[in-house]
Amino acid sequence: MKKENNEIEQKENKELIVKKEEKTRIGTGKWLRQTSLTVLLILIIVAVCIGLNIFVENANLTDFDFTEDKIYSLSEQSKDIAESIDQDVEIILVNMSESQEDYAKKYNSINSKITVEVIDDVTSRPDLTDEYGLTSDSYAIIVKCGEKSKVLSSYDLYTIDYTTYQQKDITEEALTNAIIDVTTDEKPVIYNLSGHNKYSSDYFYYFIQDLLDEAYEFNDLDLLTAGKIPEDCSVLMITTLAEDITEAERDDIIEYIERGGNIILFSDPNSTGKEMPNFQDVLDEYGVSVSEGVLLEQDSNRMLYGTPSAIVVTVSPYTSVTQETNMNMNACFMTTGRIDIADSEELEELGVEVETLATTSSESFYRTDYTIESNSKTAADEDSAYATVGALLKKTIDEDTTSELIVYSNNIFITNLRIAISQEYFSYALDFYNNEDLAMNSIAYLTERDNMITIRKDVEVSTYTVTKQQNTIILSIIFAIPALSIIIGIVVWQVRRRKK
Fold first, then answer.
1. In this structure, which long-range contacts are made by residues 305-314, counting pairs with CB atoms below 8 Å and at least 24 apart in sequence?
2. Over 90: is that where the pLDDT of 402 sits?
3. pLDDT(69) > 80
4. What's the CA gap between 40 and 53, in Å, rounded?
5. Cα–Cα distance between 124 and 141 in angstroms, integer?
6. Taking the chain, what is the end-to-end CA distance rounded to the nearest angstrom?
7. Pick from 400, 404, 384: which is nearest to 448 by CA?
8. Which CATH number fits the domain 189-448, given the four candidates 3.40.50.410, 2.40.10.10, 1.10.287.630, 3.40.50.880?
9. CB neighbours (10 Å) of residue 249?
């Protein structure tokens, strides 16, 4: 009996051992299968990511830009210009960064006539080294159209914001302006009347640079030495006068008007009250004048903080000058005068039609007594609600000829005047609100360049360059941490499973 019991016990032990071995074998196999599947899944995910990256890179797809100001996308102006190109344009990038390559490819994605070539070894292109004097150490972007070309160096792609002292990336602005430059057959010519001005051209340096960047020619014009306004003058620009023009100059300008010439006038109020009958004769051709007094603002929401003389004016979106933008704009006029326009009967006799471009608020007032120190309206001041500070006047000369004048009763808003924002920072007058847009769009309108009438994006992007150590840390965060998390997850899962 005892022997039988031992045999039964031994048999049960053998069966138990066999079952344990089978269970271990099954568990081991299952673990290996599950681990293999996990590793395979990871490899598939990695392969898909690599494949997607290769596809996206080769397909040159447009990036998604979720930034509020769309700083990584082309501005509407750049898109419109790229779409309008009907000539073959080459953008050749020599030793440039990936970010600049990406910007160049955005133009190609909009218009296939704009092609992009990336060159890492310029010595393989002796034609470029010979024509442009490039070396293996050169960093450049060459924009070509036919026989015309423009070379952008690294210095052209960056600037310094002297209000914050940060480096700014202006690649888009430089590329768009280069494309305009090489595809424009005849550049509109802007002549700036000189000889009697209150401000020199240096005072408008950034505005003039804007004109040059957008493919205009700009020249100072002294009528006393030139004798007449050149035939190629697209727009005669007149800024605040310190003294009257001569009778000869007056006659030259009126003759220019009679042949259909266009004028843009930026004029601060004549605060000195100096008589300028000859210049007024020119303005009388359009039935307009600029006041001697100054406008002040009482609405705190329509002025720079605590400064009633720095008025935020409303720019009408429905005028010939602004309707292409399809957006509301404001400008900041500083120590601005008022535009006085003749009555409808006189305008009809002159053959002049008027469009109001910019106005003050309902709470603005007009002051002629400069000895008054109060910022508030006094009994000596005059109500001047919705005063006109910008106007377009179209004068019909005959059935085939029209002359147009755009006048702003302020000059400071297009200057390099530094306006303090705080104890540390300042901004140029041209950069406030839509000052630059208003002035540049006015020029574009007078030169019939409708594709240049736009709201210009602030394309300056602050750049941040990482060190080698910082780059290693960033790559570790991107790749090492996710991989480590996966491994830890697998280990924890196995430990918990075995405890069961």
1. 308/375, 309/334, 309/335, 309/336, 310/334, 310/335, 310/419, 311/336, 311/360, 311/361, 311/364, 311/389, 312/433, 313/358, 313/359, 313/360, 313/389, 313/390, 314/358, 314/359, 314/360, 314/361
2. yes
3. no
4. 20
5. 16
6. 39
7. 404
8. 3.40.50.880
9. 22
Nearest Cα residue to 74 out of 65, 87, 85 = 65
Q: Do residues 179 and 106 make contact, with C-beta atoms less than 8 angstroms apart?
A: no
Average pLDDT, the chain: 84
Phi first, then psi: what are they for 176, rounded to 5°? -60, -45
Task: Determine whether 353 is exposed, middle or buried from the number of CB atoms within 10 Å of its CB (0-12, 13-18, 19+).
Answer: middle
The answer to whether 117 touches 93, Cβ cutoff 8 Å, is yes
- CATH fold of 69-188: Glutaredoxin (3.40.30)
Residue 500 has pLDDT above 80, yes or no: no
Query: What is the secondary structure of 2-16 as a DSSP string?
Result: HHHHHHHHHHHHHHH
Residue with tokens 């329509």: 302
Pair of tokens at residue 238: 């007149």
Residue type, 166: Q
Cα separation, 50 vs 37, whole angstroms: 20
| pLDDT the model gives residue 80 | 84
Question: Residue 56: is its pLDDT beyond 70?
Answer: no
